[in-house]
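Data card: per-record layout.
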Amino acid sequence: MQNKIFQNFLGQKGLKMTRERFAVLEEVSSVPVHFDPEQLYARIRESGLKASRASVYRTLSLLVESGLVEKVSRSGRGNIYEHTYGRRHHDHMICDICGEIIEFYSEDLENLQLDICTSNNFKGMSHTLEIRGHCENCRR
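The structure for this 140-residue chain is written out next.
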């Protein structure tokens, strides 16, 4: 299904589903954790698929634009991404020391955001919440 979504998205932009774009999409779909573009590039190369570093970065931008991938955070190492297709919305706590990313969901926070939007006559379409700090291990 996500192949079809991405293919339709590319078609609307006048682009084609190339072998490299397909390889990037396939690898992104198989990554169960957060990743950076260099990790993704290395995984593609290790799997024997062919995609240039530039194609990985460009395709990743297209996947974000299509809604299949989300940019989670910007760290000292660059952008961190996650595959979001078919996953429930969640937010993140990010350790500034070790880079650990902890996912969480809070119904109370979601309701508060909805209330704030409603009281300001605003239609929220999406949001990203990042709490930055120090994880338990790094505080020791």
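Known properties of this structure: Residues 91-139 form a domain with the Dna Ligase; domain 1 fold (CATH 3.30.1490.190). The helical segments are 2-12, 19-30, 37-46, 53-66, 107-119, 136-139.

See the next section for split statistics.
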